[in-house]
Every structure is written in structure tokens, then in C-alpha cells.
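Shipment paperwork, digital attachment
Item: protein structure file
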Amino acid sequence: MPQLNPTPWFLILVLSWLTFTLIIQPKLLPFISSNIPSSKLTTAAPAPSWNWPWT
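Attachment content:
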């Protein structure tokens, strides 16, 4: 059963994580998010009561 042999897959896993952490992640981190969270508290409007026709 070749899928149980971890030798080639472990190398692929390690190389892909190294590629992500050393190359891709530093290029993505400098971008500024366009959705900056605000500290303003939002108050929800009171929900209107439902008019049930059978009550």
C-alpha cells in the first residue's frame, strides 16, 4: 500500500509549510484590511411584536 509510506508525503508537507510561512505569509501580512473594526457600540432596535391572526 504506497499511500502508507510517509517518506514522499512528509517532504511535500514540510516544503509546502515552509513555502507558506517564509514566502507567502510575509507578502500577505503588510496589506491593510479595508474593513477596519470600529469601537462604536451598536444598539439593536427593539424588535416589533408579531401580530398572529389566531390569537
